[in-house]
Amino acid sequence: MDKQKLYRKANENVLITPIYIFGLISISILLFSCKKELPPTNKKKVEFPSRTLINANIINRDSGRISMNVRSPLIEEYTTVDSPYTVFRKGLDLDFYQKGQIKPGYFQADWAKLSDATGIYEGRGNVIIVNEKGDSLKSEQLFWNKKNKTVYTSKEVYLISSEGDSLTAKNGLQATDDLESYTLFNNQGFKYVEDNQKF
Fold it and tell me: Does the record bear Nucleus in its keywords (predicted)?
């Protein structure tokens, strides 16, 4: 009888231990599997300017000679980002001086951005470039590479000479920033001639 009791007790201990182990494993699985899944976040990286200038007038000199005069109601410089840039959110008026020229060229836009690495200005909204002779170029978007002294756009552009001749390029142009040399894409235009002028 004592042997039977001992045998039963041993069997109960053997049965109880797996039940406890199974219970602990089940609770562990439930605890770790019930981890609440968070919805994916679409965090947009926000960049803040490292320097802000209000009602700025900046004059750049090269070897004592004025090379550029920049005027803008608001200039924001982003220098702590991977590709530093400067934004002119409220517009830009810029005089640029060519070597050997007395009168400056002129660049104007309602909004502009300068890439510090490439030296390329992007102008948007009423973009105008005027050379020292008075020839002008107008577009809604224009890129000016100040290092290569070139301008280009794929938008419609108007080229108006100081004499009043006008050319329109529906698909943009590539030109030097003094407007001496240019390539127009899908163009048409008007040329004013004197009454007595022969062809």
Answer: no
Q: Which residues contact 132 (CB under 8 A, 6 or more apart)?
A: 98, 101, 102, 103, 104, 105, 178
The residues facing 141 across adjacent strands are 124
How confident is the model at residue 40, as a pLDDT? 66
Which CATH number do you get for residue 144?
2.60.450.10
Residue 16 within any structural domain of the chain: no
Give the total number of structural domains in the chain. Answer: 1
pTM of the model: 0.69
**12 inside domain:** no
Question: Can you tell me the distance from the alpha carbon of 38 to that of 76, in angstroms, rounded to the nearest whole number?
Answer: 36
**Domain containing 107: what range?**
51-190
Pairing of strands 182-184, 166-169: unpaired
Q: Is 127 a member of any domain?
A: yes
Q: Are 82 and 58 in contact (CB under 8 A)?
A: no
Nearest CA-CA partner of 184 in 154, 161, 164, 149: 154
Q: With the CA atoms of 128, 132, 135 and 136 taken in that order, what torsion angle do they form, in degrees rounded to the nearest 10?
A: 0
| pLDDT tens per residue, range 7-49 | 555 555 554 566 666 666 666 665 565 555 656 666 667 788 8
Rounded distance between C-alpha atoms, residue 179 and residue 135, angstroms: 7
